[in-house]
UniProtKB/TrEMBL annotation:
PANTHER family, per the entry: N-ACETYLGALACTOSAMINYLTRANSFERASE, POLYPEPTIDE N-ACETYLGALACTOSAMINYLTRANSFERASE 10
Bilayer topology term: Single-pass membrane protein; Single-pass type II membrane protein
GO CC annotation terms, alphabetical: Golgi apparatus; membrane
GO BP field: protein O-linked glycosylation
Localization annotation: Endomembrane system; Membrane
Major site of localization recorded for this protein: membrane
GO molecular function terms attached to this record: polypeptide N-acetylgalactosaminyltransferase activity
Native organism taxonomy: Eukaryota, Metazoa, Chordata, Craniata, Vertebrata
Cofactor(s) demanded: Mn(2+)
Keyword annotations: Disulfide bond, Manganese, Membrane, Signal-anchor, Transmembrane, Transmembrane helix
Protein's UniProt name: Polypeptide N-acetylgalactosaminyltransferase 10
Gene that specifies this protein: LOC115395873
Organism annotation: Salarias fasciatus
Top-level division of the source organism's lineage: Eukaryota
Amino acid sequence: CRKDCIMTAGVGRSACEHWRLLLSCAASTGNGEQGKPFPLTESDRVDQAYRENGFNIYVSDRISLNRSLPDIRHENCKQRLYAEKLPNTSIIIPFHNEGWSSLLRTVHSVLNRSPPQLIAEVILVDDFSDKEHLKVALEEYMKRMPKVRILRTKKREGLIRTRLLGAAAAKGEVITFLDSHCEANVNWLPPLLDRISQNRKTIVCPMIDVIDHDNFGYDTQAGDAMRGAFDWEMYYKRIPIPAELQKNDPSEPFESPVMAGGLFAVDRKWFWELGGYDTGLEIWGGEQYEISFKVWMCGGRMEDIPCSRVGHIYRKYVPYKVPGGINTLRHSAFRFFFTSVSPKEFFFFFFFSHTAKPVL
Ligand code: UDP
Ligand code: MN
């Protein structure tokens, strides 16, 4: 299979359906190829397979690190044009005790499906993992990938401070955060960078597809015409976009009041102008509200980009220890409000996220 680049040109803009490495290979028919579910046997379903990651690592280990994925973008995405000169990005991937094959597949998918000139570097940030495979073996493996750097925290920091360590070291014009168990789909990157190049205060999120934690089948989330919101308990949810705000063309970027939090790209300097993340946030939880509200309050915007798709393995359960217990996560979600948001702002955002038109 070769990397192909089908150019459609416009004035200063082009659509390069590039680097469709393996995707265009109809011949890829092995386990999990084309994002198909792996045929599980009873012995694959044992608890041991899930214990360390909350997803079935036995299955992951038997699927190619370069597996092909189905191109499930809206048809119109194939006609969209992007600026010929786009900013480059550092890809930041924090991990804590991630499985070998799931971490490597994340890196492979990014390098396989991105135009090389747009990837400044890939920064893997180890949040104090204790698994042997993430030490020398990982460093040895990554020697063959000159764009990949490995940083390590000195103690368990949690997702937020781990991301900040990566962001502080990043050199790219844009920083793109991914989880350590993702698969970037065809032409995922230019649609994100294009929006940032048009307005540097735009934070962009890809559509997050679901990689099944049992069989690794790749599928879209239920209901695509949804946007981010949260309920009175601060749980993030996606609710339908009101009919009057829906675009005629489903491949158009649309505004979102709050982001899901895990996967997004942001202009590096703008991220720091926003103050990065609150460093008092523990493990994970709440950081997506903090960054979302700061974006709105500082005159920025947030968008979901339908033509950019990235798969994520949603775990069956949280496999790692959370220092201070799982309550820390709920505490984290509220911390932001006690420290930075007035009640008036809170109500504004709550109603905005549920009903109002984005008029900022
Ligand atoms: N992570 C981390 N430190 C932690 C917990 C999580 O670096 O203490 C990483 C983890 O490896 C993943 C990301 O943060 O890349 C998000 O965590 P997770 O995937 O567990 O959250 P979920 O997607 O299940 O909500
Ligand atoms: Mn995750």
